[in-house]
Write a structure and sequence with these properties.
The structure holds 2 protein chains of 2 kinds. By secondary structure, chain A is an alpha+beta fold. Helix content of chain A is 25%, strand content 13%. Chain A has helices at 2-8, 11-30, 76-80, 116-120, 164-169, and strands spanning 59-61, 86-91, 100-107, 126-128, 143-144. In chain A, the strands form 2 sheets. In chain A, strands 2-3-5 form a 3-stranded antiparallel sheet, with no helix packed on it. Chain A has a two-stranded antiparallel ribbon with strand order 1-4. In chain A, a hairpin with an 8-residue loop joins strand 2 and strand 3. Chain B is mainly alpha-helical. Chain B has helices at residues 9-45, 60-72, 86-96, 107-123, 160-168, 171-181, 185-216, 221-230, 236-254, 279-303, 330-350, 356-384; strands at 129-137, 149-153. Chain B has a two-stranded antiparallel ribbon with strand order 1-2. Chain B is globular and about 65 Å long. The two termini of chain B are 26 Å apart. The model of chain B has no long low-confidence stretch (mean pLDDT 84). Classes of the chains: A alpha+beta, B mainly alpha.
Chain lengths: 170, 385
């Protein structure tokens, strides 16, 4: 009898409509102007997309406070790299006890962004940054080195005008 | 009251053409806005934004439009209207797309099926009355129709409801024939399901509309609307209230909308009966579905929600002589139609699909006995009053 009444009077449909209706009115009346937006989607090309804190982007070299390269050419990253995209050539510098990389070539074309190089680094001298707009028009743009013309290991990859958020900054 | 009595044949035809054009303008304003509202409302219900841009373009006209729309998002109210140009893009796309007819299909029936659907859904408006009287009178200077009233209905038939029900059920031929003529499995299954579903739901739909017919004792659209809102005893109000929900459920099934979208089950049959259709032929099916939604909303609002009278369920007679809200107005009618269209989208965003056997069970095991009980109650009220 109870089941029959439940079928006859669709109270659960009313409940569902109430939930969605109140949510709709909340969004409709505030028209997405809240500090914490109610929608879960990112308006990516217009707004800079948020990435997770552990996002693995492009390989970047770090410098310490004096502007010195932290890397000491232990070749740990070169050895552990599964796709062998890192090539290091070590050298000497006046007034520095450890070695310093003369060449640090990174072929992003073949990189699989596994972060093994960062994990193996004992000196915290490289990280994967949060950049994900890595597309380029030329194959040469993916070879990144210490002294590249437009791209090097210390800065972000210059991107074309892929998004409105870039044009806002200029 | 029959305004056509004193008019010549030329005047009658010119007036009918003018009214038809007015109705078509109404349809082709409301239908694109409904598709836009569908995107937006579904997006808001599901924690999305709905349509906000034309395409992923950065340059050219669409790129400029996208930047304008993004700028609109920062204004207070206008951000709801972001993505409004999308529906123009929709229409342009449907018109411009290549019209493909499969080689092994039945060409004649394949071509004529969308037209049947479309004509059946538009022709229903001949019987629907937006306002029981003259909206305005043409000035004397107008050549042929000068001095004649522009009524809110195309024809004041004595069998208006019968005409509406008869013509609107022809629309299923378009779906079934289109599904069969495509010579493909998915459309065929969609068409068969559609035949079974629409024929099943035709019964409770008609029976639920019979209760107002019994209560008023007429099939004339205008008389039914007026009597239902102003001359009903108070006992009839709960009956109309229940009948409204039954009618709306059947209407959802008749127009193939979720949660009863068996013919075009997107997750089982590719797109149902219009899998093989492209371009404007698909557009006709699409338009027919939305026009059917308007028709069902119009019938529901005029027979259960009071139509051009403000208060629903026969409660209007209490405020009939109040100055502003008392007299009937076409605005109330259109507002009720728009609200019911919103309800369509609202329900689509809320209730999941039913299984095929569940859909059939609802029709035969619950709705038809229920409407028969309603019919008996209506007869008792009619006999007692």
């Amino acid at each position: 009898m109870n089941k029959f009444l439940k079928t006859l009077i669709p109270i659960d449909i009313y409940k569902g409509l109430k939930v969605t209706g109140t949510h709709f009115m909340k969004v409709f009346c505030t028209a997405n102007r809240r500090k914490v937006p109610l929608h879960r989607v990112q308006e990516y090309p217009e707004v800079k997309a948020k990435v997770a804190p552990r996002y693995r982007g492009r390989l970047t070299m770090l410098k310490d406070e004096q502007g010195e390269i932290k890397c000491v050419c232990c070749l740990a990253c070169e050895k552990i790299c599964p796709t062998q995209v890192i090539t290091i050539e070590s050298g000497k510098k006046e007034g520095r006890k450890t070695k310093i990389p003369v060449r640090y070539d990174f072929e992003m074309e073949r990189c699989i962004f596994c972060e093994f190089c960062v994990e193996s680094c004992g000196f915290d001298s490289i990280i994967l940054n949060h950049q994900f707009e890595l597309a380029a028009y030329n194959r040469e743009d993916f070879s990144i080195g210490l002294l590249g013309q437009s791209q090097n290991m210390f800065q972000l990859t210059p991107v074309g005008r892929f998004s409105y958020s870039d044009s806002d900054k200029d | 009251m029959n305004p056509t009595a004193s008019m010549t044949l030329l005047q009658i035809s010119v007036m009918a053409i003018l009214q038809t054009i007015a109705v078509l303008i109404f349809i082709f304003i409301v239908v694109p806005l409904t598709t836009f509202a569908e995107r937006k409302v579904l997006g808001y219900v599901q924690d999305r934004l709905g349509s906000v841009r034309l395409a992923g373009h950065l340059v050219g006209f669409t790129g400029w439009m996208n930047r304008v729309m993004w700028g609109m998002g920062r204004l207070p109210f206008v951000s709801i209207l972001r993505g409004l140009p999308q529906f123009i893009g929709d229409i342009v796309k449907l018109f411009v797309k290549e019209d493909i007819v499969p080689e092994k299909s039945d060409h004649f029936i394949f071509r004529i099926a969308p037209a049947i659907s479309m004509i059946a859904s538009v022709a229903v408006f001949a019987g629907i009355s937006f306002y029981p009287g003259a909206l305005f009178t043409f000035p004397k200077a107008v050549p042929i129709v000068g001095g004649l009233p522009f009524t809110g209905f195309i024809s004041n038939m004595n069998i208006g409801l019968l005409f509406i029900l008869g013509v609107s059920s022809v629309g299923v031929y378009g779906i079934v024939l289109g599904g069969w003529a495509s010579n493909s499995r998915f459309p065929l299954l969609g068409g068969l399901r559609s035949a079974a579903q629409i024929v099943s739901y035709e019964v409770p739909l008609t029976l639920s509309l019979m209760a107002p017919v019994i209560l008023t004792g007429t099939l004339n659209f205008n008389d039914m609307t007026r009597k239902l809102s102003t001359e009903m005893p108070l006992v009839a109000t709960p009956l109309l209230f229940v009948g409204f929900f039954i009618y709306l459920t059947c209407g959802f099934a008749e127009t193939n909308r979720l949660p009863f979208d068996m013919p075009e089950a997107e997750n089982e049959l590719v797109a149902g009966f219009h899998t093989e259709y492209a371009g404007m032929r698909f557009g006709f099916f699409y338009l027919a579905e939305y026009i059917n939604m308007i028709v069902v909303s119009a019938l529901a609002s005029s027979f259960f929600l009071g139509g051009p009278f403000l208060l629903p369920f026969g409660l209007h007679r209490f405020i009939l002589h109040v100055p502003v809200i008392g007299p009937p107005s076409a605005i109330w009618f259109v507002a009720k139609i728009l609200f019911l269209l919103f309800v369509y989208i609202w329900v689509r965003g809320t209730i999941p699909r039913y299984r095929y056997d569940q859909v059939m069970a609802i029709a035969w095991k619950y709705l038809i006995p229920f409407t028969l009980v309603l019919l008996m109650l209506a007869a008792i009220i009619r006999y007692a009053a």
